[in-house]
Design a protein that fits this description.
Layout (H helix, E strand, L loop, with lengths): L2 H28 E4 L3 E7 L2 E6 L2 E4 L5 E8 L3 E2 L3 E6 L5 E12 L2 H7 L3 H17 L4 H6 L1 H15 L5 E13 L1 H70 L1 H20 L11 H17 L1
Antiparallel strand pairs: 1-4, 2-3, 2-5, 6-8, 7-8, 8-9
Helix pairs in contact: 3-5, 6-7, 7-8
Length: about 300
């Protein structure tokens, strides 16, 4: 083989190798694989061209370039402390934090430089504004409502930055020592007042219970007396009816019978050997015996 033929063959091989290398380079430059947790911003001649979603993407080699690789994972701002004054003029220190994620990277990279600093400043201003609308007691009792309000306000403020605020937190509300001492004194006074009220209510309840007990006892005594009176009236009516039905003789007979029974019981008593009976009583007993004898 001549020297010219060798040179032609070598040139052809070099050209083939160069073309193959160029093809590999073009494919490498054109095919871009974006991780699941990222989005890539593509520029063409220094201007925004497109945003690559996670997965396999194609770009124009040597014309397009990936200018920004943006993580779309949720982020947390460092805990920030800011002073605020409540509606009732109490100075408090609020510890807050915000969670967010980037949903439109083209807005984030071209509209704001320091996204974390911008969100932190926005949160501080909104927290101060919202705290100024509420009394200290409302801040302590309505913390969930305050957090929701802050989240919605921050989300509206950062909407042009391609940010989604996923959560806002009020970690703590701290008071200065003088306010704490005043609140402690107020709390102790309130506890003492509640104790006095409870004690007074207890005494009042005891008096009411005693009065109820006395009223109940009086009602029971009155009821017993009424029952006894009803029984006595009933017995009297029975006796009266018996006299009306059998005449006066039946009543006299019952009286005589009782007198004789009483005399027999008196004579049968072991402690009495001599019985002194008045003459009038003897006459009455005699009449009783006569009546009993006549009845037999």
């Amino acid at each position: 083989m001549s020297e010219d033929a060798v040179m032609d063959l070598l040139s052809s091989n070099i050209l083939f190798i160069l073309l193959a290398f160029l093809l590999v380079l073009v494919v490498f430059k054109a095919v871009k694989i974006v991780p699941q947790s990222e989005q890539h911003v593509v520029e063409r001649f220094g201007k925004l061209h497109s945003v690559l979603a996670p997965g396999i993407n194609m770009i124009v080699p040597f014309l397009d370039k990936i200018a920004h690789r943006i993580s779309i994972l949720e982020r947390q701002l460092p805990t920030a402390s800011q002073d605020a004054i409540t509606k009732d003029n109490v100075l408090v220190q609020v510890d807050s934090s915000v969670f967010y994620r980037i949903v439109q990277p083209e807005k984030t990279v071209y509209r704001i430089r320091d996204i974390d600093g911008a969100i932190a400043t926005t949160v501080a201003g909104i927290v101060r504004a919202e705290m100024g609308k509420m009394d200290l007691d409302e801040v302590q009792s309505n913390r969930a409502q305050l957090i929701t309000t802050i989240k919605d306000s921050v989300e509206d403020a950062v909407d042009n930055w391609g940010i989604e605020v996923t959560r806002a937190e009020i970690l703590d509300v701290n008071l200065d020592q003088a306010t704490r001492d005043a609140m402690l004194q107020q709390l102790n006074a309130e506890r003492a007042r509640r104790a006095q009220v409870t004690e007074a209510e207890g005494r009042k309840r005891a008096v009411e219970l005693n009065a109820d007990a006395e009223l109940y006892a009086a009602e029971q005594i009155a009821k017993a007396r009424r029952i006894a009176a009803d029984a006595e009236a009933y017995a009297t009516s029975v006796v009266a009816q018996a006299i009306a039905d059998n005449g006066l003789e039946a009543a006299q007979y019952q009286v005589a019978l009782k007198q004789v029974e009483a005399l027999n019981a008196l004579g049968a008593s072991p402690s009495s050997s001599t019985i002194l009976v008045p003459a009038s009583a003897l006459e009455a007993f005699g009449n009783a015996f006569a009546m009993l004898k006549g009845r037999k």
